[in-house]
Specification:
Shape: globular
Order of helices and strands: HEEEEHEEH
Largest sheet: 6 strands, antiparallel
Helix content: 25-40%
CATH architecture: 2-Layer Sandwich
Strand content: 25-35%
CATH class: Alpha Beta
CATH topology: Yope Regulator, Chain: A
Oligomer: single chain
Number of domains: 1
Number of strands: 6
Distance between the termini: 38 Å
Structural class: alpha+beta
Radius of gyration: 15 Å
Length: 125
């Protein structure tokens, strides 16, 4: 399903890393798509690195943690991975359809594109 979705976007930069990992560039954002396994209980993880975040900054942490779980983020959450501030969405694969997959990827792309520049400007990074 993910590969089929990505094939419909012939004019964007994308890569098929493995049968469990893909990425796509949407605007200024790289959206990564992962499956935790190929088993029945697999989870879909869609994530985007916002910017390098090697040192934790309490003001940023508090700000983004307050946003997590709000309707403004539509189920997307901020986190830290590999010294980057990220946005991610995790969902069981069971019951996932093409429309929801597209919605999840679009949410990550739009919200990441909005918040990367906003947070850099707001906190003078």
């Amino acid at each position: 399903m993910i590969t089929d979705f990505l094939h419909t976007y012939e004019d964007v930069e994308k890569a098929f890393v493995s049968n469990q990992e893909w990425w796509i560039i949407s605007g200024s954002v790289k959206v990564q798509i992962f499956l935790t396994s190929l088993d029945q209980d697999a989870e879909l993880i869609v994530a985007s690195n916002l910017f390098q975040y090697p040192n934790s900054i309490p003001e940023i942490n508090e700000y983004v943690l307050k946003l997590n779980g709000t309707l403004k983020l539509k189920g997307v959450s901020f986190g830290i991975r590999n010294k980057h501030l990220i946005l991610s969405y995790v969902r069981p694969v069971e019951g996932l359809d093409q429309e929801e997959l597209e919605w999840i990827i679009a949410c990550i792309a739009v919200i990441a594109d909005e918040y990367d520049d906003f947070l850099i400007e707001k906190f003078d990074l």
